[in-house]
Structures are given as C-alpha cells and as structure tokens.
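WARN no homologs supplied; continuing
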Amino acid sequence: MQISSTNNSIYSSVSTTQTANNTQNTSSSFNTLVNTQNQDTTTTTSSNKLYKKINDFLDAHNGYSSLSPTDEKIFRDILSDNKLTKEEADSLSYEQVEKIATLLRQSDLPEEEWKSMPLVVRGVDLSATQITTNRQFNQAYYNTMKELPNEQKHILDSEVHYNLGELYLGAELRATFAIGSSANPWEYQNMNADFGKFIKDVINHHEAVIADPKVDDIYKKQHQDIVDVYNVLEKNYNQVLSKTKYA
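OK structure emitted
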C-alpha cells in the first residue's frame, strides 16, 4: 500500500509538473503570437500612413521639389484647405493649371502610397489638360469644360472621348448613341492628328444628319446638342491657336 501510495504521489507530482510546463509553454507561445501580430500590425500601419492634408502628403513625397518658389507658394496657399475652386483655377495661367494637375496626379508613386493621398475637391476638370498630347487641343477642351453647364459638360466629355477613339481607329466619326467602334484613352492619347479638322469633321457629320429630312426630330435634337458643344470647343480651339500664333 505504501508503494502504491508512493507511486501515486510520484505520478501526481510528474503530472502536475507537466501540466504546469504545458500551461507555461502554451501561455508563452500565445504571448509570442500576440506580440508578433502586434508588431506586424504596427509595421503595416506605419508603412501606410494616412494624411489629412494634401500639403502634408506632397511634402512627404517631395511633390513640390520640381516647382519654382513662386508656384510652390501659390499652390500651397490654394491647396491648404484641400480644395481647388473654379475661381482659384481661373486665377492661374494654363501652364500653372497643367503643373497643379501633374502635382495632384502623382502617377509615379506605388499604388499603396498613392491611395493614402487625401481627397482634393476640384471645381474644374484637371484631367482635361491631359486628354491628348496636343497642348492646344487640351487647353481648348479644358476651357470648354469650364465654360459649359453641367449637362453640356457631360455631353462634350462622352462625345469627345468616343470620337477620339474613332479617329484613332480610322472609323467614321459618329455619336455615342450610334453603333460603332471606339478605342481606349490610353490608345489614342499619344496619336498625332489635325485636331482642327477633327472638330470640323464631327460638326459636319452631325449637321448632315440634322439636314436629312428622313431623320426623326427627336434624333435631330440629340445631334444638335452635340453640335452645340462642339461649336464651343471649336471657338476655344481657334482662340488658343490665335494666342499661340501671336504670343
């Protein structure tokens, strides 16, 4: 009986020690896992810093480094409230508008860093300055988008993009509501073209449809809406060419 008692005592002691060790090991492993996860979370958070102010973001990524001191001061003041109003854009030269568009694009940054850029409320369409590689056409398009009311802006935006795609493909220049082929912006952006002729060709196409007695008045109205916005684009394009010629 004494032997049995001793054995039970020894077993009990070993079992208790093993349980304690197992508990200690489990606790240690859990703590290590938690600490590791905390370290990973901290690292992830620090590498994806969120910015509230666009100027802080641009400073962190050397955004202003390529600008002149004058442009830097102007842009910092304008963007201090994370806004670019139409009135502020109108106070800039077109060259400055191009620069601030590039500044706010930051296309060279990795996607994870670009996503941390604060939202800047824009009263003008800065992407209009980069629709093609033809500076005169871009300026005319930008000025037209500023000039038109919202409903006509939408018409011009959709039609110009669609027609540029048709021009790139060598297809007939037709309206977006017609059945035709178009290309993607990254395909036609770098094409060389006579943009004055392009504008005139689009206008001529729609005026021909309007003059056709077989076309229903409802469709004629849609074509006239396109002619109206393209007429404004043509006016602005000719103004840009005139200023460039006598600059």
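The beta strands are 83-84, 121-122.
OK
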